[in-house]
């Protein structure tokens, strides 16, 4: 079974621009979560989607948004990019819709903001 | 909200020795505790997990123990090999959906 795929793998953007990242979960998985990983802040939860609905949201500004489609694929968008948004953005999928289920991560999208 | 502390931040061991990483959590409602291994250029890989109704779980050379009363859990790697070198993260989740709160990570170096 194919793992979680994320596109693109690398991205360079300029301050003030916006960016959209894509995530395809493992086939049959219905919950998708997004995390930001930086050397300074570590791994931080952004949001979780299940059945096209945002179920949970972390402490990030409104510039960070996401959505999930009926096929469980998910996208996240960051508007008005800042230098501090440079990070590895990770997507994880969960096989069940229940709480506390194992999450499988993709390889991430490395975003660099200049 | 949940807070997870992880120690040590770096760990250097000789091949064949054991490695132990410890984490503490703050939210008594947390009930799921996974461990991830992250190699350079890759996403975190789930290596073992434990739920709050279990005290210990083992999978070949790795084991995890959970002490709910003290709110801490540990990862034990026995007979370490060079390929065990990576960054390891502990995490906790509970009533807040599948949100994982991660520890700061432990960089493990296994010297041949």
What does this structure look like?
The complex is a heterodimer of chains A (114) and B (112). Chain A has 114 residues and is mainly β. In chain A, strand 5 (42-50) and strand 6 (53-57) form a beta hairpin. In chain A, the strands form two sheets. In chain A, strands 2, 4, 5, 6, 9, 10 and 11 form a seven-stranded mixed beta sheet that branches. A four-stranded antiparallel beta sheet of chain A has the order 1-3-8-7, with no helix packed on it. The mean pLDDT of chain A is 93. Chain A has strands spanning 5-7, 10-13, 19-24, 31-38, 42-50, 53-57, 64-68, 74-78, 87-94, 104-105, 109-113. Helices cover 0% and strands 53% of the residues of chain A. In chain B, the strands form two sheets. In chain B, strands 2, 4, 5, 9, 10 and 11 form a six-stranded mixed beta sheet that branches. A five-stranded antiparallel beta sheet of chain B has the order 1-3-8-7-6, with no helix packed on it. Chain B is globular. At the A-B interface, strand 4, strand 5, strand 9 and strand 10 of A face strand 4, strand 5 and strand 10 of B.
Brief write-up:
The complex is a heterodimer of chains A (114) and B (112). Chain A has strands at residues 5-7, 10-13, 19-24, 31-38, 42-50, 53-57, 64-68, 74-78, 87-94, 104-105, 109-113.
3D shape of chain B:
globular
What are the low-pLDDT stretches of chain B, counting only 5+ consecutive residues below 50?
none
Mean pLDDT of chain A comes to 93
What is the overall pLDDT average of chain B? 95
């Amino acid at each position: 079974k194919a793992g979680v795929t994320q596109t693109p793998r690398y991205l360079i953007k300029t301050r003030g621009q916006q960016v959209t990242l894509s995530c395809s979960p493992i086939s049959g998985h219905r919950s998708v979560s997004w995390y930001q990983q930086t050397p300074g802040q570590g791994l931080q939860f952004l949001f979780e989607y299940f059945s096209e609905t945002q179920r949970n949201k972390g402490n990030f500004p409104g510039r960070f948004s996401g959505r999930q489609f009926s096929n469980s694929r998910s996208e996240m968008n960051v508007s008005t990019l800042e230098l501090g948004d440079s990070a590895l953005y990770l997507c994880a999928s969960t096989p069940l819709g229940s709480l506390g289920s194992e999450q499988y991560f993709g390889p991430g999208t490395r975003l660099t903001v200049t | 909200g949940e807070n997870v502390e992880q120690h040590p931040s770096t760990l250097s061991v000789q091949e064949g020795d054991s490695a132990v990483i410890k984490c503490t959590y703050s939210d008594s409602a947390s009930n799921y505790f996974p461990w991830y291994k992250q190699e350079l250029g890759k996403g975190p890989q789930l290596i073992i997990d434990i739920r709050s109704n279990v005290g210990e779980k083992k999978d070949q050379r790795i084991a995890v123990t959970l002490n709910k009363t003290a709110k801490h859990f540990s990862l034990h790697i026995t007979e370490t090999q060079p390929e065990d070198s990576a960054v390891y993260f502990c995490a906790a989740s509970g009533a807040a959906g599948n949100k994982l709160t991660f520890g700061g990570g432990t960089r493990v170096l296994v010297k041949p």
